[in-house]
Amino acid sequence: MRVARPGFVLLVNRESAPADEADMRFGVTVTKKIGNAVVRNRMKRRFRALLREALPQAGIAGADHVMIGREGGVERDFAALRDELAVALSRAAEGKGDPPRKRGGPRAHHGRGK
């Protein structure tokens, strides 16, 4: 399930863990188009702190939670990110994720012609 917020996208995968396992796992990823290594690492540290704080109360048992950094995520206020994560987790728990991203059509091959 995908829940998009202004500072990040939250992905929740309920099917990843065995049925008898209630542990929650999380991951964080920030692509190179967001900024240099210092900016990306700062964003990842903030996201990890948010997840450690929020998952015990609002996380989905037995699911994997992944936060993907978005362009404005590092400049956003920490309290705003905390509120956005709470909303995203509640939407995911209710099964109200965003629709899947539209994929582009077939891509043209730009390799060497043989």
Count of all domains: 1
Rounded average pLDDT: 87
Secondary structure class reads: alpha+beta
Oligomer: single chain
Query: What's the arrangement of strands in the largest beta sheet?
Result: 1-2-4-3
Helix content: 25-40%
Describe the sheet with the most strands.
4 strands, mixed
End-to-end distance, in Å? Answer: 41 Å
Note the main attributes of this structure:
single chain, 114 residues, alpha+beta, Ribosomal Protein S5, domain 2, four-stranded mixed sheet, 2 helices, 33% helix, globular
Write up what this structure looks like.
By secondary structure, this protein is of the alpha+beta class. The chain has a single domain (2-93), classed as Ribosomal Protein S5, domain 2, CATH 3.30.230. 33% of the residues lie in helices and 18% in strands. Strands 1-2-4-3 form a four-stranded mixed sheet, with helices on one face.
Layout: helices, strands, pairs:
Elements: E1 2-4, E2 8-13, E3 25-29, H1 37-58, E4 64-69, H2 78-93
Parallel strand pairs: 3-4
Antiparallel strand pairs: 1-2, 2-4
Quick gist of this model?
By secondary structure, the protein is α+β, with helices and mostly antiparallel strands. It is 33% helix and 18% strand.
